[in-house]
Amino acid sequence: MALAQEQQTSLLDERKDTASTWFKTLRDQICTAFETLEDELSGGNKADMEAARFERTPWNRADTDQPNESGSVLKGGGEMSIMRGRVFEKVGVNISTVYGTFSEEFADKIPGAKDSGGVFWASGISLVAHMQSPLVPAVHMNTRMIATSKNWFGGGADLTPMFPDEEDTKAFHGAFKACCDRHNPSYYKEHKDWCDRYFFLPHRDEPRGVGGIFYDYLDTGDWDADFAYTQDVGQTFRDIYPEIVRRSMNEEWTEEQREHQLIRRGRYVEYNLLYDRGTQFGLKTGGNTEAILMSLPPEVKWP
User: Fold this and answer.
1) Closest listed residue to residue 77, CA positions, set 118, 112, 122
2) Low-confidence residues in the chain, pLDDT < 50
3) H or E element: which one contains 16?
4) Is 173 part of the annotated catalytic residue set?
5) How far apart are CA 28 and CA 14, in angstroms?
6) Rounded to an integer, what distance in angstroms lies between the CA atom of residue 264 and that of residue 298?
7) Whole-angstrom distance, CA of residue 133 vs CA of residue 156
8) Which of 38, 143, 164, 289 gets the most CB atoms within 10 Å of its CB?
9) Taking the model in full, what pTM does it have?
10) Paired residues of 215 in beta bridges
11) What is the pLDDT, as a whole number, of residue 235?
């Protein structure tokens, strides 16, 4: 019995290393793709600016067993990658691997955490891009692995245009439908519907954008298959979003379009601060505040 438990622990550790390494690899691939877009810009209102590059900032939690304000103990760290450029007004691509013990109150809300005595491990990548051009949609993507007494994956991607474009929406959804269909024919409808429910602002009775896919607590019993799907979600985003950016990034825009963009960004802020579970999870477990709030746009207006 002890040997079997030791083997199970060893396998889980191996899977944790595999997942966290993948999130870092995906981060590198996406950052390279986004820097390429910065280099390619040849028109629009910001073509005279210099192409930007990501600036990376590592962060670590103090190795302490003292609980934070929520009563949780968090250790580990991550790395923020932020770029402010001529295509991307602000984009953050963050990775982290954290572990520790949830407070009793918080453990009740996380699958398997109560049975693990609050012990958890989490690793993932989180990305939000706010664009210079109002004609290029903002975007969010994240994927993650979480381990308590249960082990599961979650994530997804959703598109938030300032001026919805049917071609962009069709391309984005088409890419993710193909991704889902490669793994399970039921995933696209399930995860699209989940996204539509999740990224919704009840106080305004409107969706945040044109959707995408979202999933959580994915544990089919086949870890390799669940991980393969999670990898494919990240790769699909890496490939389709730059295509969408290239469609409109060289077009001129007006001051009226910029004003509309700044007002629409207010919806993004409202959602992330009021409803987003990732934001709440990070803040309540004592995560890095700057990394958690990197999703907020650099400039926004409320009329």
Assistant:
1) 122
2) none
3) helix 2-40
4) no
5) 21
6) 13
7) 24
8) 143
9) 0.94
10) 155
11) 98
